[in-house]
Amino acid sequence: MGVRLTLVAALAALAAAPSAVAGGWLPASADAEWVYEFNNTAYSAVPVKEKVTVRSATGRSFILNWTTEGQGNPENAHSSVGTVSFQDTASGLINTDWASSVPPPDFPILCARAGNCGNSLASSFYLLIWGNRAPLLVEPLLRGSSWASTGGVEGDVTSLSTYVGRERVQVPAFPSPVLAAKVRTEVTQAGALGDPFGSGVRTVWWVYGVGPVKIVLEHAGGADAPTSTSTLQSTNRIAQAPPPDANYFPLRKGLKTRYAWRNTKHLKQRSVQEFNVDETANNSARVSVKHVSGPIRVAGTYGFALRTDGLTNIWGATQAASLAKFPALGPRALAPDKRRRFFTPYDLMTYGSNPVLPAYPKARESWTVKRPSRDFSIFGARGKTTVLGLRTVRVPAGRFRALAVQSTFTQAGFPFGSGTRTSYFAANRGLVKLVFRHRDGSVSTVELLR
């Protein structure tokens, strides 16, 4: 995060008409207003009120202004004006730019050199974006979400953020506590003159439909290390119920699952396979599969990405030696050696169309295979997928309250690639059961062993 020292005169043109609305965690409609009170226990003479408004918005990008002018602040309060720019993307909220007047002279210097330092922690939105600009807030925001990011004008500030969960928080802007998503971030700056001040632990409480309502940054240092805070004093935004945060397919590094699958005609001896989440970054993951027992000796990897448009299988590559003989799959438009095969539970789960799951699944939500599309080119299957809702299922790994998702596919000329698949996903576990009733009369069943 940096400070553009030439901004003060440019802020005379703050009234451009916004034309777009951002996502629910920071809604930037044209009339949106927020007033925050910023304070630092060591370097602020008094708490300072800052008014934040929307300068402009186009598509998914928007710019916010802030100013301390006209907010009834005491004479000894420091003054500040600035802008901060965002983009609301499929992977979350990203900070794209910033500019402001210089920070108060008593604040620590957050650069390796004292002259022309482009970093500041002297206002509410600088507290917010310090060290984690891309993404600032990951989406979908689900249980277990964590992400790494960087910041600072020289890119020397690193952070690791974790979604802690939800709790009610009381701030002056609302008469009673509001439900907030709590995000904890460990921030580290190295090499700056004031790098203890640039390091610490920040907690942000986000309210859906409003934005951040409280920010606390506990700076590193000795026993008397300072704390910076910002609390929402007033707003014309209305707190809304946040979307569900259940994670039905956790992409957590090191997560292992073991499955057995059979087919009533073509795989009567079960194939046992183990999956491991090898690497994760920005809500994307590489998952490997290996043979444990049974007639299919397989090894391979899959790529998944979780975004606001759902969980997408972006690639898959397997090698297998199978004693089981499966019927051919289409589409005819692809050469036989380019067609997908059913060797693993994930082959069955990802077949036909994306997303595998919506980001925030709701009962009766549905989607169809588009033509033309990437999925139709690969699978050549027409079909529709519907979220059925929660169901209770029993598998060797236990009893689960699982989200049922049903797909019906027709792959022209290939009955084994046609039929009805029902997948069951348990929160914090992922796939626990799958039943594919193929139109050749056979049934494939997958169950979680552990």
Structure at a glance:
With 450 residues, this protein is mainly beta.
Task: Describe this entry's structure for a reader.
With 450 residues, the chain is mainly beta. The chain has 2 domains: 7-235, YmcC-like fold, CATH 2.40.360; 256-448, no CATH class. It has 4 helices and 23 strands. It has helices at 7-10, 124-129, 345-350, 374-379; strands at residues 33-40, 48-58, 61-67, 81-89, 92-100, 137-138, 146-151, 157-169, 178-189, 200-207, 211-219, 227-235, 256-263, 267-281, 284-293, 296-307, 310-322, 366-368, 381-395, 398-411, 419-426, 430-438, 443-448. Strands 6-5-4-3-2-1-12-11-10-9-8-7 form a 12-stranded antiparallel β-sheet. It has an 11-stranded antiparallel β-sheet with strand order 17-16-15-14-13-23-22-21-20-19-18. A hairpin with a 7-residue loop joins strand 20 and strand 21. The two termini are 45 Å apart. 43% of the residues are buried.
Average pLDDT? 92
Largest sheet, order of strands side by side? Answer: 6-5-4-3-2-1-12-11-10-9-8-7
In terms of DSSP E residues, the strand content is over 45%
Largest sheet: 12 strands, antiparallel
End-to-end distance: 45 Å
Structural class: mainly beta
Number of helices: 4
Q: How big is the Rg?
A: 26 Å
